[in-house]
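The pair is quoted verbatim underneath.

:::
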Amino acid sequence: MKDITRIANILFSITITIALIGGGLVGLLFLLAVLIGGNTGESLAVFTKNDLLPQFIRIATIAMLSGLVRFYADNFHPLSLNTDEKK
């Protein structure tokens, strides 16, 4: 279980970092597209929406999945309704 936790932790760290940087990049590209305007801005916005954004959403999904695997491999259930706390 420790190996699964370690691998999931590494995968989560890498993918969440890429997803966060990608989200910022997408936002900046949309802002740049608005500032440029015209056909060039339109093509930049369409490229960002159709090509970049779906890739970063997939990476964020992998991050969420690896984070859940890490929680359950460690037997840590933060969303549980169980009120018993371990001390």
Remarks:
- Residues 36 and 42 are 9 Å apart (CA to CA).
- Residues 38-73 form the longest helix (36 residues).
- The chain is about 80% helix and 0% strand.
